[in-house]
Amino acid sequence: MEEKISCDDGHEFKLLLSCPSGLSPSQVSVVFDEAYDRIPHPDPILEHSISEIWDARVQQSSSLYNGTKFRYGGYTFNVGNDPKQQPHVSLQLGLTDYRTFVGTNLSPMWERYLVQSEDDCIQCQHTSSPLGNGAIVETSDKKILVLQRSNKVGEFPGYFVFPGGHPEPQEVGIISHDGFQELNQCRTINSKVSQEMFDSIVREVVEEIGAPADSLSSPIFIGISRRVLNVRPTAFFVIKCNLQSDEIQQLYSSAQDGFESTQLYAVSMSDLENMASKMPGCHRGGFALYKLTVPGANNS
Asked: Which portions of this protein are annotated as coiled-coil regions (predicted)?
């Protein structure tokens, strides 16, 4: 399932999971458990640096706050023995927070947190690794929507990205692992988190693009890519919008989170190929996942 791609500018990506046929919400489930939380690093000095880096960042920007995030801890993929049975992915998620993300994945010393292993989850067991999300949005006139990030954002200012962000634990009432030990509670929360995987990407598109939710199709999950630089994982989805690109451009001017980007582009597949050289690795991986869903796209 894993594939590593090298990019000329050093923004490599790794495809952790590829689902070229696309999976609907009924084909994706979640196991939310503290077993998939980050394991503290055995070096106490390295662990202490998390607080030091966070405190320094907060002094630089008082608007930073420490929200909880879902931590990517792996997946299981079940194709099934019955040809009529649909493939199914179960995502394994723990809990982390933005402070630990800044102090591990985004730390100047991020590589010291990695463990030598071919197993991705073991390699990244000491990093926060919050699971991000991204959407390849197709308009009714067969264009794909791409944002240019603001120069004021913390990561990859000025780069091209797909709309996205993170699924949010607080949206489903999760602050910690407390209270979800009983079997029926586990099933309920797993179902809610699974739904949040799909609800959150629709929210991100609405907030960043300005397109109303009722103009968007149900998201289709196509896989997970990981930026090799600071091992940042992102789940990608395909969403169809029943509006034309010029209509979306008008809506974008009043998008709720429009401040995060400076421009919206509606581009063809060949245009997107050219823009990919200025995408962060995780989003380049998202484009690679998308191309796998489009017949003949990798042969052009």
From this structure: none
If DSSP codes are grouped into helix, strand and coil, which group holds residue 109? coil
Can you tell me which residue has the tokens 């067991």? 125
Q: What is the CATH number of domain 13-293?
A: 3.90.79.10
128-153 in b/e form (b: 16+ CB < 10 A) is bbbbbbbbbbbbeeebbbbbbbeeee
Tens digit of pLDDT for each residue in 236-283?
999 999 999 999 999 999 888 777 788 999 999 999 999 998 999 999
Average pLDDT over residues 83-106: 93
Side chain identity at residue 273, one-letter code: E
Identify the pLDDT of residue 184: 65
Domain definitions of the chain by residue range: 13-293
Q: Does residue 212 contact residue 206 with C-beta atoms inside 8 Å?
A: yes
Distance, in Å, from the CA atom of 124 to the CA atom of 103, rounded to the nearest integer, reads 14
Q: 67-93 b/e with 16+ CB inside 10 Å = b?
A: ebbbbbbbbeeeeeeeeeeeeebbbbb
The predicted pLDDT at position 4 comes to: 42
